[in-house]
Amino acid sequence: TLHLQRLTGNTWTTLYTLGPKTAKKATYVSNSRNYTVTGGYYYRVYGTHSAKKGTTTETTASYTNGLWID
């Protein structure tokens, strides 16, 4: 699942969520979407990723660096 977030003050707030996207026996999974954002803020993408085998699920998260939009 991907989340587009905006920094307001010291808090990252989710504006849009895309997913989840599921694939079986895949090397990678990709997803994309275009959004129009308001200038004057930092934005980033936050992703949560899971892999499951049998009854075991491993989950992790990643973030892009914040990007200033004029």
Would you write up a description of this structure?
This protein has 70 residues and is mainly beta. 0% of the residues lie in helices and 56% in strands. The protein has strands at residues 2-8, 11-18, 41-53, 56-63, 67-69. Strand 3 and strand 4 form a beta hairpin. The radius of gyration is 14 Å and the shape is elongated. The two termini are 27 Å apart. The model has no long low-confidence stretch (mean pLDDT 92).
Topology summary:
Layout: E1 2-8, E2 11-18, E3 41-53, E4 56-63, E5 67-69
Antiparallel strand pairs: 1-2, 1-3, 3-4, 3-5
| Poorly predicted segments | none
Instruction: Give the strand content.
Output: over 45%
Structural class by secondary-structure content: mainly beta
Distance between the termini: 27 Å
Indicate the percent of residues in helices.
Answer: under 10%
Query: How many individual β-strands?
Result: 5
Question: What does the average pLDDT come to?
Answer: 92
Principal-axes shape call: elongated
Q: Count the helices. How many?
A: 0
Major sheet size, sense and barrel closure: 5 strands, antiparallel
User: What's the SSE pattern?
Assistant: EEEEE
Give Rg in angstroms: 14 Å
Summed up, what is this model?
Helix content is 0%, strand content 56%.
Could you list some keywords that capture this structure?
single chain, 70 residues, mainly beta, 0% helix
